[in-house]
Amino acid sequence: MRNFFQIRNLLIIATAISLPVVVADQFMRFAKRPRNNSRVMLLSGGRLDSSGIGVRHYTPNSTIRHSAVYGDILEYSYKFKTDENGFRVTYNCSVSDKTNNLIAITGDSFTEGQGSNSSWIESFQRRLCDQGQNSVNLAIAGYGIEDMQDSLDYAYEKLGARKAIVAILADDINRPRVPMTSNLTCSMYQSKKNYCGHSATWWHHPQDFNPREIVAFAKTKYNFGIIPVLKFFKYKLKTMVKYNTNDSANTNLTEMINRSISAMNSITLKYGPNNLSLVILPTKNDRDLIGSPESKTKRNADLQAFLRSINKNVSIKDIRECPLGENHFFFNDGHPNEEGHKLLGKCFLNQIENSKLP
Asked: Does the structure show a pLDDT above 60 at 22?
């Protein structure tokens, strides 16, 4: 009898705890929450992965459509062409000898031009072409310094590049190398579970979708209910502990920076310091549009530690003072819009006007 009462009491307690959770979960599913601040990335016309050539690339010789949806808002949707290796063509130079003084440019989504019909690097590529030099833009969304090293190794060994430009954000030095895979449904970061939606995912859709159909398709990819809230809370808690309180996590962060330093030094060794330039681009945080002064100070301290540890003969162009305002970035997204890219291009050209680049 005593065991019966104990079991009954445990069931009552379990019901009292679980019932509000179940009710909240069902309500959130019915109300289709949370989703307003969640981004759904979409691709059509090809895939994005790192199989075959060993570095991230889109389907070669294709017209790719890239879109981003936040809640009910289509933040951007644009098309671009890829070259024979699967890299975005940000400027098409007509110099006949494609390997003559080829300059390889690498970076993350800012240099790829995510969200925009053009990239800030286009104006520099045009100038190179006018001088009889070809260039290739290897930049891909999500790249850290290790991935950038891989892309420049590919350009050196397969494309004959002997000069390089590495364009980074302060955050890039904390990004690990992550291979990508793809299937008929999506392109995604490789992970232990390796299914669409488990890691960073670009969902595939028919290329003839109109804006309304893109938003409707994106809505089918949201996870509603209380589980996404708990996962988000867990992620934020881990991030807070990692960057603020836990010594072992800070050690891991330092380890990642050291890996980025090693990758940058490997690039320098391959290309030579006099054939290499490092460009530092501004984010919303650098322009004091989001984030706290403390986070900006922390990011800058990490970046300075990185810069102190690379070859002193590498040319560094820091254009974080380029006067980008709120109107130069997408509202929900952290990327520069087309006007932002134009201004970045002008700032870069102004800075190199009287200086030597590779």
From this structure: no
